[in-house]
Amino acid sequence: MSGDAGSGAPQALHALGVAALAARLRAREVSAVELAQALLARIDAHAGLNAFVARDEEATLVQAREADARRAQGDAAPLLGVPIAHKDVFVTREWPTSAGSKMLQGYLSPFDATVVARLGSGAGGAGCVSLGKLNCDEFAMGSTNESSFYGAVRNPWDRERVPGGSSGGSAAAVAARLLPAATGTDTGGSIRQPSSFCGTTGIKPTYGVCSRHGIIAYASSFDQAGAIARSAEDCALLLSAMSGFDPRDATSVEQPPQDYVAAMRQRREGASAARPLAGLRVGLPREFFPAQLADEVQAPVRAALSELEKLGAVLVDVSLPRTELSIPVYYVLTPAEASSNLSRFDGVRYGHRAAQFGDLLDMYRKSRAEGFGAEVKRRIMIGTYVLSHGYYDAYYLQAQKLRRMVADDFQACFGACELIAGPVAPAVAGRLGEQGDDPVQAYLADIFTLPASLAGLPAMSVPAGFARRAPGQAELPVGLQLIGNYFREGALLHAAHALQQATDWHARAPAGY
Predict the structure, then answer these.
(1) Of 29, 303, 444, 490, whose CB has the highest number of CB atoms within 10 Å?
(2) How many Cβ atoms from other residues are within 10 Å of residue 295's Cβ?
(3) Active site residue 87
């Protein structure tokens, strides 16, 4: 599989990331139309991954022609003509948006989500060319991408394994070189976990940095848009275009646009080319390295931490004592918010409506029963229960108090370190159907990603090598999680970029892709 950035052969285009493709487009070595056509053909060739749920070749080529026309007029926007795709929870005018659910099958939004508009080809957009919509767990509820109405996405490293979720389609498509980058959302790890399972780089910024306007809500105080790409540099390019204050989102942070590429490249005081992370204190929470952590995860993560030390970082022991409480807290609060957010899908105004029903109440019942999948129903029921009279104080209110305590634990750690590191998930990607009817097992697997989500902190997954496998078995990627303090995305990207300059884990492609 060629990854030679100097080759102009069309068949090598899929091997290039965002930064490399942007350079090719600027140099007029390839047009946006040629690039889009090459990747559309590649998506067709690998349709068996089930990564895409909506495509429209003509709509894509219209955007590509617009990008080429802008460049011909002298437009030098950094992402102009770069192909991407959007997770199926971002509403779009040109592609249907269903959030992976029968409830919204065929829904066409009258407007684009803010993130889509900022990255897109319209006025004021960065000029990216959309290749379509990517599969995801239904309403972003899940960690395997098996709850999607459109069926499970397959992991390109081993097609009998899950890609992770809920942004599994985004991570699988980037890993399989179907496109250089994609949007995702992270509520409790839905960018970081699939990035770890698929060997991609994924970042969830501080809550409020990217607008939630036009994202179909799961849990409003958690949901955050982010990017999945090949490298930290590629993520920085996308995040720079995606982020910024949006008056249409009440939770949007009022700060000027950030240049995350410049922040990523900023040299630390006392650093050198050989030791770019000199003096960086990286905290290792003891709760992130329990005795039962699988060796196939622990070994690659420890190897990546050793690389950080070689680059000048100093590893320090810290503690996040309420890590285990993150699971019950998260699975009280997010179902409660989901119960409220999903109440709008009732078969009246839009979405699925039952064909046969008696009165209005019967229509509500049948439409929701038919439109929602099992995992969504489960979380709605849990959320309705914890918000019900007599249980609000016992469950929901107590969970909110613990959420604050989790955030305080992080601030105590950041007194001793600048970044926190550890595994993304306690195991590598599991087999399709492995979790069966045991949702609790899936919930427990979120233990390392939930704390940062509860606190609203920026966090990312960086490829950290591969699990040790028996001879003849496919390699399975493992991710290193990096967590920063509020609005320290630049520091995260800087550390990740330095690691990727010293290693090639992020550059490896699955066999056959």
Answers:
(1) 490
(2) 10
(3) yes
